[in-house]
Amino acid sequence: MAKRQLLEFDRYRYGKRSYLYPGDRFRASGGPHFIGTDDDGKRTRIPMNEGGVFVFRRYCEYGASKWIEAYRKGHGIAIIYVGRPRKSPREVQKMLFER
Questions:
Q1: Confidence (pTM)
Q2: Where in the chain are the domains?
Q3: pLDDT 10s digit of each residue in the chain, 99 long?
Q4: Could you tell me which of 20, 37, 39, 16 has the C-alpha nearest to residue 28?
């Protein structure tokens, strides 16, 4: 089995001929949801959405996980997941917090 590695790109293609480059501004709304259980064992859904105007920094891939790193004025860096809905693997969570 091939070892996965983090791939970093300085552009993100979001249409047939449209790209985001570092410094480009874009607007995002919505976002992923955390699905878990509370203290009573009930299933909960917590939105982890990032919305508003962002400044593109880079696009990253790690296996099937794909995300955009961007800046948001007054909030710092934001990680915006752009892949298909799925559970985040532990490796990606560790990479994000070890930087």
A1: 0.64
A2: 7-98
A3: 567 789 999 999 988 899 999 999 998 876 666 667 777 877 777 666 667 888 999 999 988 788 889 998 887 888 888 876 665 555 555 555 554
A4: 20
